[in-house]
Specification:
Protein name: glutathione transferase
Domain GST N-terminal: 4-89
Enzyme class: transferase
Largest sheet: 4 strands, mixed
GO molecular function: glutathione transferase activity
Mean pLDDT: 94
Radius of gyration: 17 Å
Catalytic activity: RX + glutathione = an S-substituted glutathione + a halide anion + H(+)
CATH class of the largest domain: Mainly Alpha
Strand content: 5-15%
Number of helices: 8
């Protein structure tokens, strides 16, 4: 059955949901949200109760229902919203699209494989190893971005919505992580000051936190 407004299903955290929420705000698209929370016993039962009943090809969170379209995976959802609402956010040239693809995959690996796993399985030793990796990764990202306003040039693209949330979480974890990378810090400020984003951040609908589920050993 088609839904009247786009429906986003995700945990009651920022996580992979916030880039999508920010993009909805930027596009001025009203949407509804199905929020999942861990049970008091810290199980995923609330999600598991729905998981196989939603008609999803690859059941996962986040998911999006938009009319008759059902889609999962955060980055696929971001690109779908751009294709159907504002295609220029996918990049206007082949060169920019290639840069977007590189940033997309680089940032996902940095956030999900390195940062998120470290938070969920946190130990002091793991933290030290992550810090050494973080400096190298941020240095490469900073040099790639250079003096551009956005990650791939001077026009905002969908990958900037993903990148913003990842960098926000890095700064939440380590307030001084951008001291040597002022262009990355400036990127955060620039994104937050986009009029539609600023309005969303200041609205009662905005979820300030947490960034990650409460089962993580290190919570931000």
């Amino acid at each position: 059955m088609a839904v009247s407004k786009p429906l986003l299903g995700y945990w009651k955290i920022r996580g992979l949901g916030h880039p999508i929420r920010f993009l909805f705000a930027y596009l001025e698209v009203n949407f509804e949200e199905k929020v999942y929370e861990l049970t008091p016993e810290l199980t995923y039962d609330n999600w598991y109760a729905d998981k196989e009943k939603l008609g999803l090809d690859f059941p996962n969170l986040p998911y999006l229902f938009d009319g008759d379209t059902k889609i999962t995976e955060a980055r696929a959802i971001l690109k779908y919203l751009c294709r159907t609402r504002k295609p220029e956010l996918l990049g206007k040239t082949t060169e920019i699209q290639t840069r977007i693809d590189m940033v997309d995959n680089f940032v996902y690996d940095l956030w999900y494989i390195e940062f998120s796993e470290m938070l969920y399985g946190y130990t002091e030793e793991w933290h030290k190893k992550y810090k050494a990796i973080e400096v190298v990764r941020l240095d490469r990202l900073s040099k790639f971005m250079g003096e551009n306003d956005w990650s791939t040039g001077n026009d905002i693209t969908y990958v900037d919505f993903f990148l913003y949330e990842v960098l926000y979480q890095f700064k939440k974890f380590d307030a001084g992580c951008f001291e040597k990378f002022q262009n990355l810090d400036g990127f955060l400020t620039r994104f937050e000051n986009l009029p539609k984003i600023k309005d969303y951040i200041n609205s009662p609908d905005f979820l300030e936190g947490p960034c990650i589920n409460i089962i993580a050993k290190y919570k931000i």
